[in-house]
Design a protein that fits this description.
The chain has 123 residues and is mainly alpha-helical. It has helices spanning 5-18, 22-46, 57-66, 71-92, 100-122. 35% of the residues are buried.
């Protein structure tokens, strides 16, 4: 794999250090979401979680976590849903203002989700 989930997170972090416009703030939210989404897919596959093909891939990952026997993944399902909603706002709700403070808050939360997924992956 030429690009890893960590690469997405690193880009979001680097972007946050230089961000000075709303488009940058939106990009931080989007890239940090794709970091956790990509890592979540890896974790899901490694754990042999069911794949839900009848719904969108982002919702399918949330459902896989929610229906998992792993308590930590069940808790992460809700956090992943919120992160996905934030990404939708950043990417598609162009009439909604995204501030530096909001993008920083989302990045901090997504970094925690990423770390939690990494811990689960290492178990």
């Amino acid at each position: 794999m030429s690009v890893t989930p960590q690469d997405f997170l690193d880009l979001a972090i680097e972007s946050s250090e230089l961000a000075d416009s709303e488009i940058n703030y939106r990009n931080i939210i989007s890239r940090s979401y794709y970091a956790i989404y990509s890592l979540g897919i890896d974790v899901s596959k490694c754990m042999g979680l069911p794949q839900f093909s009848d719904i969108g891939s982002h919702v399918a990952l949330q459902e896989a976590f929610k229906t998992s026997l792993n308590r930590e993944l069940k808790l992460l399902a809700t956090r992943l849903r919120v992160a996905h909603t934030n990404r939708i706002v950043a990417d598609y709700r162009l009439d909604t203002e995204i501030t530096r403070e909001f993008s920083t808050q989302v990045l901090t939360t997504n970094k925690k989700i990423f770390a939690d997924l990494k811990n689960i992956q290492l178990q």
